[in-house]
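Take a protein:
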Amino acid sequence: MPSIPLQPCRGRNGLTRSETLWVIVLLSGIVLLIVNTLQAEVERGSQRFATDTLAHLASQIYLGLEDQDLHRLDQLGLPRLGPGKPPLSLELGGQTALPLQDLMPAGAYLPADPWGYSYVLQEGTADGHAALFLISVGAADTMPLQPSVTTELCCRVYLPPANSTLSLPGVK
């Protein structure tokens, strides 16, 4: 049986316009899906990085407070700020915030949060006792009204044993 050579039809040397449009629409849809997924992952990664950094910095502050001679928490001069832009939502009441680096061991690394804001060390209460909280304001630049261990982007800084019975003024 003789074979018939396959030759393209005259004038059909590529994709038609409608086929080209379908390929462009399909590729555009794939690119949009990838970009949207990456944007969500970048935000989730920033939050995870901030949470991990808060836990690390809380342990560094704990180590730094072990070397401090504290008698009352109000001697710390809270709130304290790390490097970066001061959060716009932080109300200082006319006072100047002290640097957070002073409470950390010498040589400890203190970055800004992933959104470029300062980490904030602020006083509060937990279970009726004095507590320190390290806070990141996040992308929205919002400070919690009452920091707690359940607040997102907020980490409790535990006091060393010698200072753990200290109380805040007015807190029993």
About this structure: The mean pLDDT is 83. The helical segments are 17-66. The longest strand covers residues 120-126.
